[in-house]
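User:
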Amino acid sequence: IILEFYDIAGVSSVDSSQFWFDVAKSPYFQSDLWNLVADRNPPGINVLAWAPDKFPDECLSWLFVQNILSVSWKSFSLSYTSDKDMAKWAVHPQRPIVCFGDQARSPQLTQRGGGVSCLFSNNQIWTSFKNLVDIVQTCPPTLPTPFH
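Assistant: Predicted structure:
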């Protein structure tokens, strides 16, 4: 029996103006789904994914997954912390990549399957989500500091 632990696929729009990158994991891949996404989008991503027992930031010299702690809509004078939001999305800090998923960053969820779709090269959507990021739990300064 061959068990598929995860799968990665790319899809483009009919006119090739948009490109989606999809990552799916089975319950047999017992690790953080967002680490798979970051591994394919170096140097890493900032993730808003509510969980009461959230994974800490993943801070390796070549890869990071940083938790977004709060978001802010400045034009509406609205801000809130990530524990008030059930959304699951990520934004690359430097390149126009925005991801939407169905799994929080919780150790309890490693035993479940899940998926993430990332939209590449849409500057308008990326800028909108990047501008929502207010506070990021950053990696220690001993490692290369990612942008946010």
